[in-house]
Amino acid sequence: MHLAVSLNIAAADGQDILDFGRISAFVRNLEAAGVDMVIISDSADAPSSSPFEATTLLAALATVAEKIGLVASASTLAHQPYNLARRFASLDIISHGRIGWNATLRQNPREAANFSRPEGFSDDDFRRRAEEYIDIVQGLWRGWDADALLFDKAGGRFHDPDKMHVLDHKGEFFAVRGPLNIARSPQNTPVLVMSASGGADRDFASRVADVILIEEQSIEAANAVSAELRRRALAAGRKPATVKVLLTVAIGSEPNVDGLRTLLGSSGCDGLHLALPADLQGPQSFTDRVLPEIRRYELAGQSRQGATLRARLGLGEGGVK
C-alpha cells in the first residue's frame, strides 16, 4: 500500500508563513516514516502569500531528501506546456527520478486573471484545453529515447536522429513543435498525478494519469470508484496495475489513525492521500500526532524498493501513448 501527504504552503493574509527550514524538516520526517511522496501546492482561493513557488521548491527539497517522491501542483493556466514540461523534466534529473506533476483541472478565477484571461474559460473550453495541454506535456517527455544522446565528439554526432521524436503538435489551443532541449527523465517520464471527482475527470485520468486521487466519503463508494477507474484504464488499453488510486483523507486536529488503518485495508484503493490543513501548525501537528502512529502500525514503508518514484510506486516504465 502507498501513502502520500499533501502540504499547501500558501499562507492566508495575516498568517505566518512556512519557511524552508520547517518545510524541509517536515519532508525529511515523512521520508523517515516511509511515506512514498509529498505533494506541494502554493495556491488558494483567497488572497495568500508564500516565499516559494511549488515547482522550484522541489529543486531545493531534492537536495535535502534522498528517497521520498516530490510532487508539485501546477495548473494548466499558469504555464505554457513546453515550459512546464521542460521544468519538470529538469527537476526529475536533479532529483534522480523522484519528481511528479499534480495536474490541477480546476479553474481558479484569481489565477486566470493573472494570465491574460480575466474572463476565464467556459467549463467545456477549459477541459478541452487542459486535456490538450497534458497530452502535449507527456508527448514532450517522450521526445527522446533513453539512448538518443550520443555526445560523440569524434564522429561529430550529438544524437541519433532516429531516436529523437519531433512532437509537431497543432491543436485547438496550442502549437508546439518540440522536442525538449533536455534529456529523457531518469524514470522515463515524471509521474503524472490527477484528481478525479466526476465522470469526465475519471475518463481522462484513467487514460493518462499514473496516480489518481479520489475523494469518496464511504468505503463502498471508494471501492466502486476505484473499480470504475480500473475498468476505464483497461478499456483505454492500459494495464490497470500501472494506475494507482489513492483515497484522499482530510487530516484534522485529532486524526483517527485506527480509521486510516481500516481505510487502507478495505477501500479497494492502492493507498491513502493525507491532505493537511493549510496552516502553520499543520505540519508540526502531523509530525507529533500522526507520524508516530504511522510508524507504530507500519502504515507506510511497504512500497517496492527503487531509486525512482515510478519504481517505488510500481508504475512500470511510464510514457503513456
From TrEMBL:
The answer to whether UniProt assigns keyword Plastid to this entry is no
Q: What positions does the domain Luciferase-like occupy?
A: 12-251
Which keywords has UniProt assigned to this entry? Answer: Flavoprotein, FMN, Monooxygenase, Oxidoreductase
Q: What is the name of this protein?
A: LLM class flavin-dependent oxidoreductase
Q: Which organism is it from?
A: Mesorhizobium argentiipisi
The top of its lineage is: Bacteria, Pseudomonadati, Pseudomonadota, Alphaproteobacteria, Hyphomicrobiales
